[in-house]
Amino acid sequence: MPAMVRSQIAAMDISQRTPIDLLAERRLAEQQVNAANPDMKDKLQQALNQHTGLYVQQAAERRVLRAIYSTNQLQEMLTWFWFNHFNVFQYKGNNSLLLADYEEHAIRPHVLGKFRDLLLATLTHPAMLIYLDNAQNSAGAVNENYAREIMELHTMGVDSGYTQADVENLARILTGVGVDLAGNGCLAGTSQLANVTASSSLFCFNPKRHDQHAKFFLGQNFPAGGNADEVVRAVDMLAQQPATAHFIAHQLALYFLDDNPPASVVDEMAHTFSKTDGDIAKTLNTLFHSAAFSSGQYLGSKYKDPVQYVLSSMRLLYGGEPIQDVRPVVNWINQLGEPLYTHLTPEGYGMRKQDSLSADQMAKRFEIARAMFWNAGTLYTNEQLAISLDATDKKQLQTVRNEARIAHPVDTFGIYDLIRPLLSSQTSQILRQTLTMDEWNSLLLSSPEFMYR
Hints:
Elements: H1 3-10, H2 13-16, H3 19-35, H4 38-69, H5 73-85, H6 99-107, H7 115-123, H8 126-131, H9 145-154, H10 164-173, E1 177-179, H11 191-194, E2 203-205, E3 215-217, E4 220-222, H12 228-240, H13 242-256, H14 263-275, H15 280-288, H16 291-294, H17 306-318, H18 327-335, H19 359-374, H20 376-379, H21 383-392, H22 394-407, H23 412-419, H24 425-432, H25 437-445, H26 448-451
Antiparallel strand pairs: 1-2, 3-4
């Protein structure tokens, strides 16, 4: 990754401050809001909300910068895939302050590792526990929400043989698995969980809230008196289920290969997953070396979702010198209906063509394709300078952006030479009939060939 991008990311607050710091800052600010006189309270609350939103914006900008400029594109594609698989919602509780850490420490380190480690890292992160209500799950007041989603969406999948009793017993196993947002820690006797995530000081296993009665889960007995050990045991069992192997294999094939991946490929991947204890890299290796993948039979069959469309466009147009203001890119993704951290429900965004193809979507993609070509000046103006000038001297800001645009022209002809072998004769003919470079550029990024991967 270019040094400039690394510097941009390193300068972000989310790279320099821990969730504990951010939460403490918010508590202090909330105290000031509560103590303010009525005339100031609304203004202070609005300022607090805007300030909190900056951390989510930084997380989105970091995601975008890495996706455009990282040399390890597989890791970036998988970071998006696994975050979507283990989706959390930014507006639940304090998750706006926890999202960046969740992606950085619960998701990213495990995208090519063992699935069991990824599952356990998400299970012990406060963002997930808050989002799916396990922070409130306790003996005598069992909340089944997280247990149900773990089995249905994260591991075994729908109609895979588990029962409602399994959901109920997993929920009981997960009682006491919660959070301590003050960062005081409550991990005594939980060595198997204490070092799972970099935010373990916010994770809390409270034995007093844990149901210590006997349980029966997925055909196995859990004796009375269990504590955190049975949480780890349940995670291991879920990761080792044949249904989990098949479900995860299918989801990966759906993401990388086709909306209807061949059953034979999924079966081969599931076999690899099972025999390697859920090794994600080896499971993907089976996919990438399959005849279906390597023959090119499915090349160009996957419709790009909004995130993939915007990011692939940016890599094509501005993959050289790093952009300096990432906000427009984040906004383009938002405009296409797939904002990075605001999918409300836990299943995440759909990965099939039908989930993002519509007349309205195509019209917006055409508009954004045009904006991408003509916003080089905005993209190559320093973000902090742009924010400052936008508040003080909009005329000077426009001058700076015009100069930046002249200094960073889009290499239209180079792009055409790169993509020309992929274009159909019909698309090439349509491009030749365009009257302006603006129209030509927009049509190129709106062509059927560029909409698929």
